[in-house]
Amino acid sequence: MIFQDILKAVAELDEEERQLLRRYLEPTSEKSYVLTPKERMQRLNAALDEMGDGLSQAQLQEMTAAMTEEYIEAWDETEWIQ
What is the four-CA torsion angle of 42, 26, 24, 48, rounded to 10 degrees? Predict the structure, then answer.
């Protein structure tokens, strides 16, 4: 297989296959490791699940309400004057 054939084959890969190829070609150190969006969501969901461990349903609802309530900051025109 010549290099041009390899380039053509890579061009036909879907995004998931390209991610797998990148992992194969790049070093697997933590700094160069690239997660797919699906993997990032899985890690985020796992972290959120861990945050909720040990909390009661009432505590979780209180936290959710605090994070989602509307917050409107007072308008201060002096911030925009130079």
Answer: -10
